[in-house]
Amino acid sequence: MKIRIKFSKQGYMKFVGHLDIMRYFQKAMRRGKINIRYSEGFSPHQIMSFAAPLGVGITSNGEYLDIEVTDQDTPSFTSQTMTKSLNQVMVEGIQILSCRKLPDTSKNAMSIVCAADYTLRFRERAILEDLEMFFEKLSAFYSQDQIMITKKTKRSQRKLDLKPLIYHLERRGNAVFMQVSAGSGDNIKPELVMESFYESQNWEYPPFGFLIQREEVYGHDQAGNKIPLEEFGENIE
Amino acid sequence: MRKLALNDEILLSVQQPARYIGGEVNMVVKDPSQVDIRFCMCFPDVYEIGMSHLGIQILYDMFNRREDTYCERVYSPWTDLDKVMRQEQIPLFALESQDPVKDFDFLGITLQYEMCYTNILQILDLSQIPLHSRERGEEDPIVIGGGPCAYNPEPLAEFFDLFYIGEGETVYGQLLDAYKENKKNGRNRLAFLQAAAQIPGIYVPAFYDVTYKEDGTIDRFKPNNPCAKEKVTKELVVDMDQVPYIEKPLVPFQKVTQDRVVLEIQRGCIRGCRFCQAGNVYRPLRERSVEYLKESAKKLLDHTGHEEISLSSLSSSDYTDLPELVNFLIDQCSSRGINISLPSLRIDAFSLDVMSKVQDVKKSSLTFAPEAGSQRLRDVINKGLTEDVILSGATEAFKGGWNRVKLYFMLGLPTEEKEDMEGIALLSEKIAEAYYDTVPKEQRHGKAQIVASSSFFVPKPFTPFQWARMCTKEEFLERAYLVKNKFREMKNFKSLKYNWHEADVTVLEGVLARGDRKVASVVEAAYKNGALFDSWSEHFDNSLWDKAFQDCDIDPDFYTVRERQIDEVFPWDFIDAGVSKEFLKREWLLALEGKVTPNCRQRCSGCGAKVFKGGVCYEDKD
Q1: Taking the mean position of all CA atoms in its chain, how far away is CA B524?
Q2: One domain for residues B178 and B223
Q3: Residues of A numbered 106-145 whose beta carbons fall under 8 angstroms of chain B's beta carbons: which are they?
């Protein structure tokens, strides 16, 4: 049976990198006595996959991993009991938000990820004197028809229009909220959007200027709609 | 949530920030204002190394069982953070509370290898604690050292207030009680050190004076304080089932060196290898009962979620109930995707059978530690491993499907001659031949892969070789080249590989291992010259140490290549480690004659460890 787990990563846990979070969850499955399935072979590993790696320094309210458990049609647990067993073995900063059953035919989270929500808050030191001006200019930046940037990867540089990859951008209080393209296609980091904005204004982008938080990750359903990954599964009662 | 000592900007600009945040699974959380004693335990190396150490986990668990004590941890900040902390004058902090180490009552530093000595000074320096014991005041923590290198604490004497000699489980409670009592009565630091000096196993270096002869060796080593004892006897757990073992070890986020459950099955060793310090100072052998270990293994796996469990001891094959324990573990682990790792096993029918069950034969290798290339030299070092045993073990293994063998040797052992060195290549060749003779062509998975490595021998205190002359760097390298050239002559050269260790760092290890109080100035000078993380080959810079020796006018050869007289007073002679100097002397002379000594289960050789009234010395012999 396939289970999708949603968790949050807060506080100092943001300094623990993606690979270490994977190792952390492997051990947590054993501590929480989850009957996770193992691969065959001499060194069996847990059937577990993560939706979208989160960069070091970023907090999140919407992280996902999929696992398979050995239970067949009638599970020995409910969504609630599994969430509880896992939360009992979590560290401060990581909280399991939900455990939901996926249809057997569903694709794993990583392959369907299409978008993610982020909130960017100014760090105290980097806060601007004139916030109104900042948000006005940001709004003007976003309302352009085209936002051409040069995206650098390890191997190459390419010109890219950011505009169609930013699905939404708005002011929320004193923070910037954005929904951007994510996943294996065009994965847009929120810093990239802010850096492009600062560059367009000829401002120097302050490294560590923003506290960034991922709020949600979306996948495409068969009709092409963006749906929070959690909603692909159903509660086990 | 806990507040961190370092801000985001710093943490996001250094490598692996998770080294500095604490918060790991099973971390103990207490309210520091509700305890009487704050103890900070330190492993003076980077987090991934320090977190792999079993001893600290044991003490962390033991201290935190006390309601009146909060034990926290600190490790060496890596060089990137070290720089930032110095620039911004950020005091070194403990991982749990993130409070400055200088505000603690105790800073306990484990001394696992000599090449961490400059890191000890880094820890003190970054903590803003005066480097020298004599400069510390009432507000500074009590700095206490322990671990294997505390068996010769003299090169570090002036940096420590106390040393704990022996196993931590026995008198730490007494020491902490004495501290609390002293504090309650409003008495000062000196009063506590005097109280501590009267506790067995505790050594207060400031309470002893050393005078030297003209030739630089020790004339007298005497207490200068009535509270200090003439001899400091090591502490040791007599019944291993009577002391608690860890139940909830810390589980780091990062991949560390020992990323597994470590089950300590026994302490001590019956073998009596003459080069081995651990085998001598941890005598007598004391086993934990198999029931205790089964219970413990279950709890440890449940509480950590680790995917591997490893047995820890100096020689696992000597554990009486090994088959029962191993079968239990196989039974427990196989369905849960947990691996079993069995280091320090003698290769025989039993171990090959077990290993074929717990590891992938094609991917793993067999390890032998003959330590010396010839039977004559193996007799000198009392390594009871014969060529027949190695070859028959290897042959059995080849039949079982293995084709990789690792061999560990030492170069520079006492009495070593050309034939002994060449023996390293010859033995490796014989093992390769055994493979080609045993396994028919059609069944081979490629070539045999025999990897021989040699480290350079460092004589250690409390071993029969404590009198031995150590080789110079040039002698070491000559010997390594000689072996390397011999390998080239071998028929199966292409199946053999030979590696050797760094020579510079070995010589330095030799100075520190058998050093006296005078060596402290060199350690300090080297640190001030910039030496740090000396055990990391990419950081080790011998020129910093050369300069330190010159500036301090200390000749390293005095500690390494000098011939020692049989009646010389050694810097560590004031410690009673159980094995007597008389026994070590006897063994040294037997070694020079090439005569072996039987192990503790074959016959008692009267080493002196029987005074502890436990372990193998009192086993039923029927």
Answers
A1: 22
A2: yes
A3: 123
Phi, psi angle pair for B192, to nearest 5°: -65, -45
Query: Is the minimum CB–CB distance between B62 and chain A shorter than 8 Å?
Result: no
- Do residue B255 and residue A23 have CB atoms under 8 angstroms apart? yes
Q: From the candidates A13, A14, A15, A18, which should be mutated to test the interface with B, based on the most B CB atoms within 10 A?
A: A15
The number of CA neighbours under 13 Å toward the Cβ of B213 is 8
* Closest CA of chain B from A187, distance in Å: 22
| One domain for residues B382 and B291 | no
Does B9 lie at the interface with A, CB-CB under 8 angstroms? Answer: yes
Q: Using alpha carbons, select from B622, B621, B619 the residue that is nearest to residue B266.
A: B619
Going along B177-280, which residue ranges are E strands?
A: 202-203, 208-212, 218-223, 232-233, 261-264, 266-267
For an interface test with A, give the residue of B307, B330, B363, B364 to mutate (most A CBs within 10 A): B307
d(Cα B471, Cα A156) in Å, to the nearest integer? Answer: 54
Query: Chain A window 57-86: which residues touch B at a Cβ cutoff of 8 Å?
Result: 57
**What are the start-end ranges of the H helices in B66-110?**
79-88
The string of pLDDT tens digits covering residues B124-135 is 999 999 999 999
d(C-alpha B533, C-alpha B522), whole Å: 16
Other residues' Cβ atoms within 10 Å of the Cβ of residue A136? 12
Structure tokens at B363: 């991917």
CA–CA gap between residue B622 and residue B604 (Å, rounded):
15
Q: Do B305 and A30 touch (CB under 8 A)?
A: yes
CB atoms within 10 A of CB B603: 9
CB A147 within 8 A of CB A161: yes
- Look at residue B362 and give its three-state secondary structure: coil
d(CA B570, CA A113): 69
Contact, B408 vs B347, CB < 8 A?
Answer: no
SS3 call for B286: strand
Q: What share of chain B is helix, strand, coil (3-state, %, to 5)?
A: 45, 15, 40
Q: Please tell me the pTM assigned to this model.
A: 0.95
- DSSP E strands in chain A: the ranges are 2-9, 48-50, 59-68, 94-102, 113-122, 148-152, 157-161, 166-172, 175-181, 210-220, 226-228
Same domain, B197 and B312: no
Q: Which of B2, B8, B253 sits opposite A208 (nearest CB)?
A: B8
For residue B468, the domain's CATH number is 3.30.750.200
Which chain B residues are within 8 Å of A16, Cβ to Cβ? 18, 21, 253-254
Query: Each residue of B219-273: pLDDT tens digit?
Result: 999 999 999 999 999 999 999 999 989 999 999 999 998 899 999 999 999 999 9
B381 shares its domain with B462: yes
Residue B230 backbone phi and psi in degrees, to 5: -65, -45
What residues make up the domain containing B251?
239-359+575-622
Q: How many contacts (CB atoms, under 8 Å) link A and B?
A: 79
| B150 and B23 in a common domain | yes
pLDDT at position B346 is: 82
State the pairing for strand pair B37-43/B69-75.
parallel
The count of domains in chain B is: 3
DSSP code string of B406-474: EEEEEES-TT--HHHHHHHHHHHHHHHHHHHHHS-GGG--SS-EEEEEEEEP---TTSGGGGPPPPPHH
**ipTM value greater than 0.90:** yes
Among all chains, which residue has been given the structure tokens 């939706």? A51
